[in-house]
């Protein structure tokens, strides 16, 4: 996550909309992660986790929103204008979603709380800064990439020594050599309304996670999730 970011009123408004989507997921017995996609200054698509209802572990909030954009565009990815889309999501995208956002060419990502187990925007991997690596054929260039990465790390170290520490906003400089990787690099910012996002997740796990400490408190009006779904829920973050 980035510290000291100056959030705009629009940032807060869009993240609150993402949190509303997360609340909707919670109400429906899903891991409470939600998102909105902003294009042309307005919300173009929304999504919340649907993995349990869909019996599909890939139905993360981001994928639901992406499918909505594609549907609006008649399944034409160019018409969906992903490169003009900014994602606001309550929890850091997982590695799978971070890869999809990169391959589709999203312009930016803003998230709430970090995803310490599966995060693809800095917690576990930094897909937003590296692209998708070998998943799109980039492994053939790996040796060259490692060499360039070493050069970049040296340059970054030189920059830090000179006091040019970046700052971390949407306009932060992306690593050099980015285009060589499959997918597009994108700026990612975290920590916006993180406490609200964490609160929703804690409510979900306190109520429905069979691994939660006793006493186990079932959710009123919602059947207890089968163990396999509850285990899968741990992977639905982001
Ligand atoms: Zn995901």
Descriptive account of the structure:
- By secondary structure, the protein is an alpha/beta fold.
- The chain has a domain at 9-134 and 182-207: Cytidine Deaminase, domain 2 (3-Layer(aba) Sandwich).
- It has helices spanning 9-27, 51-54, 61-72, 77-80, 95-104, 127-130, 142-161, 194-208, 227-233, and strands at residues 34-39, 42-48, 85-91, 108-113, 188-190.
- Strands 2-1-3-4-5 form a five-stranded mixed beta sheet.
- β3 (85-91), α5 and β4 form a beta-alpha-beta unit.
- α1 (9-27) packs parallel to α8 (194-208).
- It is globular, with a radius of gyration of 18 Å.
- The model is unreliable at 136-152, 154-180 and 222-232 (pLDDT under 50).
- Zinc ion is lined by residues 60, 62, 93-94, 96-97, 238.
List the helices and strands and how they pair.
Layout: H1 9-27, E1 34-39, E2 42-48, H2 51-54, H3 61-72, H4 77-80, E3 85-91, H5 95-104, E4 108-113, H6 127-130, H7 142-161, E5 188-190, H8 194-208, H9 227-233
Parallel strand pairs: 3-4, 4-5
Antiparallel strand pairs: 1-2, 1-3
The protein binds zinc ion.
Zinc ion (ZN) binds next to helix 5.
């Amino acid at each position: 996550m980035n510290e000291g970011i100056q959030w705009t009123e629009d940032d807060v408004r869009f993240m609150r909309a993402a949190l509303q989507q997360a609340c909707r997921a919670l109400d429906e017995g899903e891991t409470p992660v939600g998102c909105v996609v902003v294009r042309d200054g307005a919300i173009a698509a929304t999504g919340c986790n649907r993995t349990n209802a869909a019996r599909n572990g890939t139905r993360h909030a981001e994928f639901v929103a992406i499918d909505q954009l594609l549907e609006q565009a008649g399944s034409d990815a160019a018409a969906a204008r992903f490169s003009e889309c900014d994602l606001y999501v309550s929890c850091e995208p997982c590695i799978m979603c971070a890869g999809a956002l990169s391959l589709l060419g999203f312009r930016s990502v803003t998230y709430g709380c970090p995803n310490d187990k599966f995060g693809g925007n800095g917690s576990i991997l930094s897909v937003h800064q590296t692209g998708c690596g070998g998943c799109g054929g980039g492994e053939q260039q790996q040796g060259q990439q490692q060499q360039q990465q070493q050069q970049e790390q040296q340059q970054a170290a030189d920059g830090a020594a000179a006091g040019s520490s970046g700052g971390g906003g949407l306009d932060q400089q992306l690593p050099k050599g980015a285009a060589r990787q499959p997918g597009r690099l994108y700026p990612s910012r975290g920590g916006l309304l993180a406490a609200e996002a964490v609160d929703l997740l804690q409510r979900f796990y306190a109520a429905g996670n069979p691994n939660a400490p006793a006493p186990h408190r079932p959710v009123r009006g919602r059947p207890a999730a089968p163990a396999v779904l509850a285990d899968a829920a741990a992977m639905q973050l982001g």
